[in-house]
Amino acid sequence: MYKKSLALATSTLVLSLAAHAQPPAPAPAAANVPTPEIIQVTTAAAKELGLLDAREPNINKRIAAYDKFSFSPELRPRLKAVFGTDKPFAPQRLPDSGGRQHYQSILKAGGHAEAQAYAAWSDVILKTNTSPAGNQMDYTGEAASLTFGVVTRAQVSDLRFAGRQSRASDGLWYGAMNMSVASIAVKGAGGPLLVEDLRLKTEVQRRGKNVDLAYGLSMRSAGVGEHKIERLNIATRVLGMDGQVVADFTRFASSPQLQQLAPEAQMQVMLRKFKELGRALLRGGVTVVIDDISAAWRGQVASLKGRVGFAKSTDAELDSMPALLNKLLVRLEVRVPVAAFSEYAGMMAAQAIKTEAGKDRPLTPEQLATIEKQMSGKIIGNIRQSGYAVVGKDEVSTVIEFKNGVLTLNGKGPTMLGMKDGKLALPPQATK
């Protein structure tokens, strides 16, 4: 849904569901190549939608505002030519039930093709039910197929999402959203890429004065042909964000004044605001928890777990690199199968023989096995001798820690990359 050819659908959906996001600015067009009409139309529509105040706290009023809204006379025929309607995702009020107000929005199946871009979609159906006070909402969305492309072409199959959110007194919407995609197929110069069973989950919770964010992503497989990851899982949390800081940033990002700026000006303003947001969050202290980052390749699983913490800081400390490093606390557990090193050694062996011969030539199993064993043994031997990791029968593991400005690997401070015994050589008054 992030692709430019669907930016209008996304921005309208975001409007209806009371999220606070800005559709992406169009990439600069290559010399003498006109920007595709579908991108021009979605960008113009998103800008006009910015006239609606996304800071309105009542979701029912926001839906009603879009219901009454009309795009400009100049844009309406262009919208109809691309999307088959001059008002995509127009909301339809359904009968109330269970004390909730029900709405439905549908973008009918269609498509648009031109020299520089192509897009096609099945019916895209959005459903929302809200509380009478407009401070709670449940929503779902689905599309059997979405296809889009400029240089490459991507086809998304069986997209579904669902969420439940509640607005708190600080104006932020808390809750969870789940999305799933059966497959994403990308055809381009680099060969066909296939991603299967993609799942995404986000959750925002309020804990006292702080906000916690949880993020999860998984896929059953991803890759090109035989070269693919068999499983990927990412589960992380950001804990202890200052709720007021997040609320202020969200209100600014949703302001009509920002939406009406030119894309380049928006980017400059948001980069500055993101920097201010980062400093404000670091002043209050924040922790990133990595519950699991793991991937499987040819049956072998590598994983990373741990946390990265940043203690409360002053502006002066944020401007001093030594002080900044002393605020950082890291502990990461890394596990890599021994077989993965053998696979890597095998690739190195194949390249070595290819280079030695000066041209491609078939490898006999005996040649490959011998060189692979030699290289794998050397790699594992070097790791064991360094003391930076524990080499077991089936896996190589280590604990990476950074505390009080000192880095250790398996409890040992490395001397490399400008470090001596894990200490980075910095002038006492070094600044960022």
What topology does this entry show?
Layout: H1 7-16, H2 37-49, H3 59-68, H4 76-83, E1 92-97, E2 100-107, E3 110-113, E4 118-121, E5 124-130, E6 136-149, E7 153-167, E8 173-187, E9 193-207, E10 210-219, E11 221-224, E12 227-229, E13 231-242, H5 243-253, H6 256-259, H7 263-284, E14 286-297, E15 300-310, H8 315-318, H9 321-326, E16 328-337, H10 338-357, H11 365-386, E17 390-391, E18 395-403, E19 406-409, E20 419-420, E21 423-424
Antiparallel strand pairs: 1-2, 2-5, 3-4, 4-6, 5-6, 6-7, 7-8, 8-9, 9-10, 9-11, 10-13, 11-12, 13-14, 14-15, 15-16, 16-18, 17-18, 18-19, 20-21
Can you characterise this structure?
The protein has 432 residues and is an alpha+beta fold. The chain has a domain at 333-424. It contains eleven helices and 21 strands. The strands form two sheets. The protein has a 19-stranded antiparallel sheet that branches. A two-stranded antiparallel ribbon has the order 20-21. β7 (153-167) and β8 form a beta hairpin. α1 packs parallel to α2 and α10 crosses α11. The longest helix has 22 residues, at 263-284. The two termini are 37 Å apart. The model is unreliable at 1-30 (pLDDT under 50). InterPro entries: DUF945. Residues 1-21 form the signal peptide.
